[in-house]
Amino acid sequence: MRTIDALQWVRCALGSGRQRTVLTAVGIAIGIAAVVLLTAIGEGLRVYVMDSFSQFGSRIVKVTPGKNQTMGRAGVLSTVRPLTIADSEVMRQLRDVKYVVPIVTGTGHVEAGIRARDTDVFGVGSDAPDAWQMPVALGSFLPPDDPGNTRPFAVLGSKLRRELFGEDNPLGQFIRIGGARFRVIGVMESKGDFLGMDLDEIAYIPADRALQLFNRVNLQEMDIVFTEQSTSTEMAERIKKRFREIHGDDDITLFTQDDMLASLDRILGLLTVAVSALGSISLLVGGVGVLTIMSTTLRERTAEIGLLRALGTTQRQLLGLFLGEAVLLAMLGGFLGLASVGAFLGLLKILVPTMPVTVQPFYFILSLGLSAVVGLLSGIAPAWRASQLDPIEALRAE
């Protein structure tokens, strides 16, 4: 049998039962669309989270009080010595340290005249904007650290400024945070959300003032930014060594940005694979549909198979005809699924432009290959039975 004749036979076979062919192709299309969409959403989420963490720089070591080897979770219970602002001043003296940011966080009631709201309050040092790459839009940030003698200054996030002062200039105005009075000296540029936290709604005050405000004795965290002359591993060792000298023990836990990004990448990568596996269930259902229609076709065309064998079609050629029909049917569903994915993503981009969805051309090519494999596997059993039919018995089925 010539190749052109084989292709013509497959085309006619699919066209003879158009409604059945379309319904089967739709089953494959739904499976392909589910796999591609879920993979795209999972990959988009991974890229979004990685970008969110990377926006604060990649040369950061986070220091928290407590050893997670003994407590299970750093910073929850008290340690031999708390992490203090004095410790942050010592860390500034380490080689290749660029910025050090002591951090105390809490929630406070912020008032400005008749306007008020509850929001997150960060007690930080003067290095915070440079360390976190968060520029000031208006005024200035907190002055250089002077532990114990810091003035009651505050810097507002852009959204918090609008809620408290509208379009008025807030510089020099007084606000009350938890009952304590602070003078506003700056407004941060808009930074947006970070893992569900709106960075534009935060009020920044000096770390020692925050310790008094929240009645705490130790910092919750210390961020250390180092220069390009050191690696995260080298800097972590220097920090541990210095804390052993001043605390007498390894009573801290370190998280480097590289470690956090690598862990997040692994976790989110596994999440993407798991979500794709769930979508593959729909594709499995589509494969069952191909198997069903091919088995039905085999019974309906038994006499036709006998005639082909009588005209000299070999078992190998007959096997290729039925496998080609199954693969073509699945590929038709694959193209239909990709077309629906393209339309859905276009609509999603219009309705929810902030939705983190990342579609790579590789996934489109992979999905088409996957649909072909599904068709091939689903068509093997019917094709094998068709090739094994006895020509004479098949002709008697007419």
Please provide a written account of the structure.
With 398 residues, the chain is α+β, with helices and mostly antiparallel strands. It folds into two domains: 184 residues, no CATH class; 171 residues, no CATH class. The chain is 56% helix and 18% strand. The protein has 13 helices and twelve strands. Helix 2 runs antiparallel to helix 12.
Structural class call reads alpha+beta
From the N-terminal CA to the C-terminal CA, the straight-line distance is: 23 Å
Strand tally: 12
Shape assignment: elongated
Percentage of residues in DSSP E strands:
15-25%
- Helix segment count? 13
Low-confidence stretches: 70-79
Average pLDDT, rounded to a whole number, is 78
Main sheet characteristics: 6 strands, mixed, barrel
Main features:
single chain, 398 residues, 12 strands, 56% helix, 18% strand, elongated
Q: How would the blueprint of this fold be written?
A:
Layout lengths: L2 H14 L1 H37 L5 E6 L2 H4 L13 H7 L5 E16 L2 E10 L3 H5 L3 E4 L13 E4 L1 H8 L8 E4 L2 E9 L4 E2 L2 E2 L4 E4 H7 L7 E6 L5 H16 L4 E5 H44 L1 H9 L4 H37 L9 H27 L3 H6 L2
Parallel strand pairs: 3-10, 5-7
Antiparallel strand pairs: 1-11, 1-12, 2-3, 2-6, 2-11, 4-7, 5-10, 6-7, 8-9
Would you kindly provide a brief summary of this structure?
It contains 13 helices and twelve strands.
